[in-house]
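Can anyone check this?
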Amino acid sequence: MVDWIGLIVPLAYITVLAGSLTTFASLYRKRKTVKAASLAPWFPAHIPRNIYLSLLHLEPEPGKEKAPTVPDSVLKAALLHRATEDIFRIIQIRNAKQALSILLQRGSVGDDLWQRFSRAEQEIEEEAKDVVNEANAFVPGWGQNIFQTANEMAANAKLRKRVEDIQSQAASERQWWEERRANIQSSFLEELDAPGAGAATATKQRSGPVMSEKQTSDEDGVIVEADGPTAASKGSTRKKKGKK
């Protein structure tokens, strides 16, 4: 005879355990999703994308049934601007990924920051795919070259910004140099106009002839000393001749 009670108890235990695990997993996923959604985005709002979508889906004006038609050239320019912004974000993601992963391994940053970064990485991948599809919708095959063009535009924009920064600092640097040159000139003029400077100059002028006189006397002394032994030698020679 089958022991139904002995079979029902394990089955009931397994059913309760599976149900509790399923409930816990669903609650954990919902909580994780809510927490991830509450995290601040890694990047600010994508303004070029919003502009492109606004131009692509224009609503009709009040009192009109048909929306205004946007030229394809304007849409292509907006799409290129959107791809250029994506290039900037891709570069930031690539530069920050290695450093952030090292900090995460060392425990210097929390999991929340890594979740924000991972979500931003997924969003930029989806954004790049969307841009490629939109480009191919305009011109077949344009999606393969749109990011190359956007990369050149990004490099040009970066160079232009750097030139503007240098030009903006040129006025302040010129003013600083003018002030420094004026300070140097004023300090130099003060040194020339100081009373001690005239006395030092006069002392130098007076010390010149004195040094020349000393040098002359020293030379004369040398000449006298040189003549002395010669005269003595001549005198001794004359004495010897007289004795002979």
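Reply from J.R.: I decoded it. Residues 208-244 have pLDDT under 50 and may be disordered.
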